[in-house]
Amino acid sequence: AQTVTQSQPEMSVQEAETVTLSCTYDTSESDYYLFWYKQPPSRQMILVIRQEAYKQQNATENRFSVNFQKAAKSFSLKISDSQLGDAAMYFCAYRDSGGGADGLTFGKGTHLIIQP
Amino acid sequence: GAGVSQSPSNKVTEKGKDVELRCDPISGHTALYWYRQSLGQGLEFLIYFQGNSAPDKSGLPSDRFSAERTGGSVSTLTIQRTQQEDSAVYLCASSRIHRVMNTEAFFGQGTRLTVV
Fold first, then answer.
1. Looking at beta carbons, which residues of chain A come within 8 Å of B108?
2. pLDDT at position B57, please?
């Protein structure tokens, strides 16, 4: 079974600074997808960024970028120029591309605090 | 609708009672997912529907849990004889096609269930 580990229960960063959230995963699959979701107090999960495992290039979405290290099974999220609106729970998630009915496998989340 | 709608937003029930949670996916989305988020935990995959069928129900935590989907649209998650450990936020998500990378899963705001 796949597992996703987020080792930082909470992170704090000054507004306008850069912060990196860690995620590692375990899988025996070679083809899969990785995601970062943001969950604000409204509870609604919002997709921040996604990465296909077969792509070597790291995904980037505006201020959000990932450092995908396939051999190390590491998928960290970097948030540049942090803003107050970035404060939320961030979840790393995995999904394989093979057969089966499983959905996303999530880590336990990192609570990101933005200090004004 | 504009997004995934879940009702009720909050539900308090007495131990031993049955509860029914509703998810109204985005129109045209054939895939629908249920997740459970316990306090301080990530999301636990429960079940997914492709149309009206649920190919794999193994994620449901016990036989007190059941789910159905009718007309390829609305889904209900039923918990019978609720226990205190069932207290959690139940999140629903939908996507156009299951397991296709570029088809994003959109989440509702969840139902917070409290069993007293």
1. 44
2. 79
